[in-house]
UniProtKB/TrEMBL annotation:
Gene3D superfamilies: NAD(P)-binding Rossmann-like Domain. Residues 307-591 form the Polysaccharide biosynthesis protein CapD-like domain. Belongs to the polysaccharide synthase family. Pfam families: Polysacc_synt_2 (PF02719). The chain crosses the membrane at residues 29-48, 68-87, 99-121, 127-145. Keywords: Membrane, Transmembrane, Transmembrane helix. This is Putative nucleoside-diphosphate sugar epimerase. It comes from the Bacteria. The keyword Glycoprotein does not apply.
Length: 651
């Protein structure tokens, strides 16, 4: 009652729209009183109509008693079907159906009383036209009352939030688009207001949908006055191709509109759906079709098995842990040397997977004694080796650290996997290992050679598998988060070279392929992933600036700083003298790279590790070039070693 009083008192306080919209719902007792008044009014109208036709009623002496009986029966069925229980401003067809049931039951009951009356008294209690006329009038007015109230509150809500809400044009006129638009209309607490629909179809330009106009693409973007009535375009990724998303995005951004994306409708309730609307990100444009993995094979490989993930707190390692957790292994051991990220991952995983057993190990993979205790204790069935140093300029300045982690660490894990008869050892490598121009890429290529050499070594039963792919979107230190921070600071966005290109893959996509590749083959293979089309980094930067609402080189400057030590203009997934073999999975191929015998690579590894302990940079890189002959330094202090090699060959 207090809420109702507050709403009406606002009419005298000058804040009526705000107060009325803050009223949660019309009290139920008031709804049933209004419905009773509608019943009386319907009875009055039906009687007036029949009186004008000079129709005589039966049993006129019991007129009042008959009216009270009709009202009592109708109220009884209102209570039975709870026609007053719904929130009127959110009335739907279901509420109308309850009104039909209530009034229909009233009609049937009175028709039955008429039949009894005819049997006993020889005449009907009510005139049949009167009953049917009353039914039609009462149903119509009750439904009309609810629709008027709903539209009244919607109008007030629109007026209240018109200045602060984002005026959205939903792209599409299909069922999915309509469901999203309806969700926006029914959730006024969110900062969005439906303002219209956009479509490629030319046959819908004069139609009205949910009370809003439908505009064709050409009609909308060619009319500057019309564009000013909107703030954003809302895209639904699940019903659009990548090309369509890019086209709508470009048109919207060029017109000064924001570009929003909707979450997946099938996984969301209405309220979550509107709350899940967010700004379109560059990852949405680079993302590709979902990968189909053979989950049954992957499940069998992990179900009730003990799994080790090294580098488990990193971008790739943590996602491998999340995906493996879905297949109910008996234990997942997560190993990393980064204390804080490991602790944060521990909190996340215990919340997401409360029934899964985890063990979180803080350790350095270059410490073989620490690792051996783990292998002996847990007897791993699967090892995913994702621990590595990966930042090219840092490793170029500190090559010995790459030897300790990328080479010695891999050697320790691979030898222990062989010793303790691990079923499968899966190493995560990089496209920078192909024709490397930097220490980081060469160290990963050396690790690949060692892992491959173990496959046919004496006494080995472990399947050693290597996976190789390019940049992953959003990984620690990758270019997209870096650009995003620069844009947030107002620029400039720094790019090493205007022609530099890179392959990109999402973290979940990469990890799904790692898990799939881990179930394939007989060991010794290097699996390369289909990375799609390469992306020009300059185009990537321009898109990100536009998506943030700025104009490249006007609001946010783009500057070129030159290639960093060891950096390439483009990355390769296959070396020059490599052939590929397709697999049964369309996204995964086998790379046939040159091999080394275990005894040979073992001797060279011992030498390079001793050089790293002595911190002899030139000796370290020189030995690395011996292990990986195709390693030619670029824009680096180590180019002198390549010149020396060429000079020696000429002599």
């Amino acid at each position: 009652m207090k809420r109702l009083y507050d709403a009406f008192s606002a009419l005298y306080n000058g804040d009526n729209i705000v107060k009325i919209t803050e009223l949660r719902y019309v009290p139920r007792w008031l709804v049933i009183i209004i419905d009773i008044l509608i019943v009386l009014f319907s009875l009055f109208l039906s009687r007036i109509f029949l009186d004008n036709l000079a129709v005589k009623v039966n049993f006129p002496e019991y007129r009042m008693e008959k009216r009270f009986l009709l009202i009592f029966v109708n109220i009884l069925f209102m209570y039975v079907f709870k026609t007053y229980a719904g929130i009127i401003r959110h009335s739907t067809f279901f509420d109308f159906f309850k009104i039909i049931l209530s009034s229909g039951s009233t009609l049937i009951t009175l028709l039955f009383l008429n039949y009894i009356s005819e049997l006993i008294l020889g005449d009907s209690l009510y005139l049949y036209p009167n009953l049917f006329l009353y039914f039609l009038i009462s149903v119509s007015i009750m439904f009309f009352f609810r629709m008027i109230t709903k539209q009244f509150f919607n109008a007030l809500t629109d007026i209240k939030g018109a200045s602060s809400k984002v005026r959205v044009a939903v792209v599409g006129v299909g069922e999915v688009s309509v469901a999203l638009a309806r969700a926006i209309m029914h959730n006024p607490n969110y900062p969005y207001r439906l303002a219209g629909f956009l479509t490629n179809r030319s046959d819908s330009s004069r139609a009205i949908l949910l009370g809003h106009k439908i505009y064709t693409k050409n009609q909308f973007f060619s009319n500057e006055k019309l564009i000013k009535q909107f703030d954003a375009v809302l895209l639904i990724k699940e019903i659009m191709t990548k090309q369509e998303i890019e086209e709508w995005m470009t048109l919207a951004l060029d017109s000064g509109l924001k570009v929003l994306k909707a979450p997946t409708l099938s996984k969301m309730r209405d309220s979550d759906l509107v709350g899940g609307i967010s700004q379109l990100q560059i990852e949405d444009l680079l993302n590709r079709k979902p990968i189909k993995i053979e989950s049954e094979d992957v499940r069998k490989r992990h179900f009730e098995k003990t799994v080790l993930v090294t580098g488990g707190a990193g971008s790739i390692g943590s996602e491998i842990v999340r995906q493996v957790s879905q297949f109910s292994p008996s234990l997942i051991v997560v190993l990393d040397q980064a204390e804080s990220p490991l602790y944060e991952l521990e909190l996340e995983l215990y919340e997401k997977f409360p029934n899964q057993k985890f063990k979180f190990i803080l350790a350095d993979i270059s410490n073989s004694y620490r690792l051996e205790k783990l292998f002996k204790t847990y007897q791993f069935s699967m090892v995913y080796h994702a621990a590595a140093y990966k930042h090219v300029p840092l490793i170029e300045d500190n090559p010995h650290e790459a030897i300790f982690v990328n080479i010695l660490g891999t050697k320790n894990l691979a030898l222990l996997s062989k010793k303790y008869r691990v079923n499968r050892f899966v190493m995560v490598s990089t496209d920078k290992a192909v024709n490397p121009t930097n220490v980081m890429g060469a160290s990963k290529r050396a690790a690949e050679l060692f892992v491959q050499s173990l496959q046919n070594s004496q006494g080995n039963i472990t399947k050693f598998i290597t996976t190789r792919f390019g940049n992953v979107l959003g990984s620690n230190g990758s270019v997209i988060p870096h650009f995003r921070k620069q844009i947030e600071k107002g620029g400039p966005v720094t790019i090493t070279h205007p022609d530099i290109i890179r392959y990109f893959m999402t973290i979940p996509e990469a990890c799904e392929l790692v898990l799939q590749a881990g179930t394939m083959g007989n060991g010794g293979e290097i699996y390369v992933f289909d990375m799609g089309e390469p992306v020009k980094i300059l185009d990537l930067a321009k898109r990100m600036i536009k998506l943030s609402g700025y104009t490249p080189d006007v609001d946010i400057k783009i500057t070129f700083i030159g290639l960093r030590p060891g950096e390439k203009l483009y990355e390769e997934l296959l070396s020059n003298n490599t052939t590929t073999i397709p697999t049964h999975h369309e996204k995964i191929m086998i790379s046939r790279d040159p091999l080394m015998e275990f005894e040979e690579v073992e001797v060279l590894f011992k030498q390079i590790i001793m050089s790293a302990i002595k911190r002899d940079k030139l000796q370290v890189v020189s030995l690395l070039k011996t292990i990986v002959p195709e390693f030619i330094s670029n824009n680096s202090e180590f180019e002198v070693l390549d010149k020396k090699t060429i000079l020696d060959e000429n002599l």
